[in-house]
Design a protein that fits this description.
heterodimer; A: 401 residues; alpha/beta; Rossmann fold; Coagulation Factor XIII, Chain A, domain 1; six-stranded mixed β-sheet; five-stranded mixed β-sheet; 8 helices; globular; B: 318 residues; mainly alpha; 71% helix; 1% strand
């Protein structure tokens, strides 16, 4: 049983979308002002409890209310109904460098920004060298920040942000800043935070990041929590959601096309199977085995120049392998009716764990027509000497230097 | 699990829950609001510094500009009103008189006009970080106070030059009048900055209102002229029922030494006699100042509650 630090009770948030702003417009439209208003519920009866020391990912499609929820927890937005209880010191990283003043120098902005994020002057004095060191822009610290490149700007802002000492950290899509070495530094800092028992609430569109960092994921859709639990299940629910959105998009496109009297191909990936070299289905694979992925595609209408692809995902949904007819340089014959495509994977060396395969088909323009996710599930058992999705035979030899 | 981890979790388990945003009822949340603001006093000081540093950052003359504006105004009023229109003939030490009024008025108008726009000007912060938003109007008040302090130094120097340095009991009016101006300005800027988020017209309305208030206060003309023109005591009371007017009169009580008149030499012309007779002062000025201070304090408390109520939706309106 953990210690909750964030308790969200039945929070709803309504936005009124008004189409007028000035006094004149309001007076002119006084009696009819409701015509110029529109209610929009960004959150609907959201309840959550988050335990100390956990890292929770808030995920969902655009406009699902993730950022609104984060701002409500941060106290930036007042919920329309319901309440949010907190304990411990909270810092919100919703935007890097919020409050940076372009005319002030880097040094002055560090102090100002640290103070905004809740550090006292003494604490900032103490961390100042570490902040500058972390940002890696010592040379420009006494330059006005308006002369900074955008990279330097976010580096400095992030450096300040990670030196605040919060119990709860709210992060809104700001982790991927700077160049790769800097990003790695940021990620290390987040891991350090986790190790220190800080609670992190993360809004992100990078599902790999959720799989990688979070203990728990909450999926929002149109202001409702549709899934809350282990990242694996949450990510699956979200991917399902995304597929639906994509399918709706496709349907809409097709409607448009149909309206234009040009029949669109209806293509479906019927099945994806994993078979061994003898052609029989397998669910357990040893490292180094030869296997094939069989993708069966059917179409009601002929598709010229189809592109067929397949790939392997880990249980968390991270793609670790993928290939397609296009990558292989194969021009496929026009697809009519049902066709089977066999991808032979020789010497597949995967680490221990559960995996799934997907199959996808795209049209000649590269538009994906259909994708079948998590189609063929299989597990890999190894000798237990390694971890991670890649397998190699390890040997250790100690010699004198 | 590291020991740090355990420690933190245990410490948090001891802490009581608090609401993420302060409640905005008429009474609930008052102490939380004030404590929040107090906890952010350091940030407030930095915002004032930022304001002052950034204002004249890339200009060569820098802070000199904040003095040049009121000095230019002084010159204009002195020449145009004092000499050409003849106001100086009825008001002794006209330059000191005007500058006293301008200094007090400058504090009020700067605090109210920049205070009104303060939430909008800091919208980036308001939308992205939780802070007690009252600190923005408070910080603009702080920077207005700083400019006021500079002008006060000039004013004092001027009294030295004029040989009429205020002494003794006169100084009692200064803190009292200053307090009246500060609470009145603070109340208005809290109220107007919050309303301005929802109704952007307010900032333009404020400009006009300040212009009217400027001429409604005895800054470039004296109370003596007003009381002669309005011989009806009711109308006089109407004129005086304005905290800024009363506070400016209070400032003049401190700095405008020549207003007390002086010994009239034999054979003085009627014009000289007029300048040397004591200038009229409204009855009970000190009492009025105390009353306005009390009213202003209540006004600030009420304005803060209105502000707290309105601030819940700031982030979405900006």
């Amino acid at each position: 049983m953990g210690t909750p630090v964030i308790a969200v009770h039945d929070v709803s948030k309504r936005f009124v979308i008004r189409k007028e702003k000035s006094l004149k417009e309001r007076v002119v439209n006084f009696g009819r002002s409701n015509l110029h208003k529109e209610d929009f519920w960004a959150l609907r009866d959201v309840s959550l409890e988050i335990d100390a020391g956990t890292t929770v990912g808030l995920i969902g499609p655009n406009g699902s209310g993730k950022s609104t929820l984060l701002k409500t927890i941060g106290g930036i937005l007042q919920p329309t109904t319901g309440s949010v209880d907190l304990r411990g010191r909270l810092a919100a990283l919703l935007e890097l460098g919020a409050g940076f003043h372009p005319d002030l120098t880097g040094r002055e902005n560090v102090y100002l920004n640290a103070s905004i994020l809740g550090l006292s002057r003494q604490e900032t004095d103490r961390y100042f060298d570490a902040i500058v060191d972390f940002s890696g822009i010592e040379r420009f610290i006494d330059t006005q920040v308006k002369f900074y490149s955008s990279g330097m700007y976010v580096r400095l802002a992030f450096a300040v942000a990670v030196h605040v000492d919060p119990d709860i950290l709210l992060v809104d899509e700001v982790l991927a800043v700077g160049d790769e070495p800097f990003q790695r530094k940021c990620m290390d800092r987040i891991r350090q935070f986790q190790h220190d028992g800080r609670t992190i609430l993360l809004v992100t569109h990078s599902l790999d990041q959720v799989a990688d960092l979070c203990d728990r994921a909450v999926v929002l859709e149109s202001g409702h929590v549709i899934e809350d639990g282990h990242p694996r299940e949450a990510l699956r629910a979200l991917r399902h959601e995304f597929d639906q959105i994509r399918q709706e998009d496709l349907d809409r496109q097709q409607e448009v096309v149909t309206a234009a009297a040009a029949p669109a191909p209806v293509v479906v990936v019927e099945s994806v199977e994993l078979v061994d070299s003898a052609g029989g289905p397998v669910t357990e694979v040893r490292p180094g085995a030869d296997v094939s992925i069989v993708v069966t595609v059917s179409s009601q209408e002929p598709v010229s120049e189809p592109v067929v692809g397949t790939g392997i995902e880990t249980a968390l949904g991270v793609t670790i392998f993928g290939t397609s007819s296009k990558l292989l340089g194969e021009a496929l014959p026009p697809l009519v009716g049902t066709a089977r495509y066999v991808f032979r994977l020789a010497d597949l060396r995967l680490g221990e764990g559960a995996y799934t395969c997907h199959g996808a088909v795209a049209g000649s323009s590269g538009t994906e027509l259909h994708r079948l996710r998590e189609a063929a599930a299989f597990t890999v058992t190894t000798d237990g000497l390694t971890i991670g999705p890649v397998w190699a035979a390890p040997r250790l030899q100690a010699t004198d230097a | 699990m590291s020991s740090q981890y355990q420690e933190r979790v245990e410490r948090l388990a001891q802490e009581p829950f608090r609401l993420a945003a302060p409640p905005s009822g008429a009474f609930r949340g008052i102490s939380r609001s004030y404590r929040d603001i107090w906890d952010h006093r350091e940030l407030m000081r930095m915002l004032v510094q930022r304001e002052l540093k950034a204002r004249y950052k890339d200009s060569v003359l820098g802070f000199v500009w904040s003095m040049l504006r009121p000095l230019t105004m002084l010159l204009i009023y002195y020449v145009a009103l004092g000499k050409f229109l003849g106001a100086a003939r009825g008001i002794p030490d006209f330059a000191i008189f005007i500058y006293t009024g301008l200094t007090a008025w400058g504090l009020f108008s700067e605090a109210v006009s920049s205070g009104t726009g303060s939430i909008l000007a800091n919208s980036g912060l308001v939308k992205k970080v939780y802070l007690p938003r009252e600190i923005f109007p408070l910080a603009t008040l702080g920077s207005a106070m700083f400019n006021f302090a500079i002008q006060l130094v000039i004013l004092l120097t001027a009294t030295f030059v004029a040989g009429a340095v205020p002494t003794g009991g006169r100084w009692g009016y200064l803190p009292l009048s200053l307090a009246v101006i500060v609470v009145t300005a603070l109340g208005w800027s809290l109220l107007l900055s919050a309303v301005n988020v929802y109704l952007r017209d307010v900032q333009y309305l404020v400009e006009i209102g300040l212009m009217v208030a400027f001429w409604a206060s005895p800054i470039v003309y004296s109370w003596g002229l007003v009381s002669r023109e309005l011989d009806n005591p009711v109308l006089q009371q109407v004129y005086l029922s304005n905290p800024v007017t009363v506070a400016i009169l209070g400032f003049q009580q401190t700095f405008w030494v020549a207003g007390d008149g002086g010994p009239i030499p034999a054979g003085a012309t009627p014009e000289q006699i007029a300048l040397l007779t004591p200038q009229p002062v409204p009855d009970n000025l000190a009492l009025m100042l105390w009353a306005w201070l009390a009213v202003g304090t209540v006004f600030v408390v009420v304005a803060q509650r209105v502000f707290a109520r309105l601030q819940g939706n700031f982030a979405q309106e900006l």
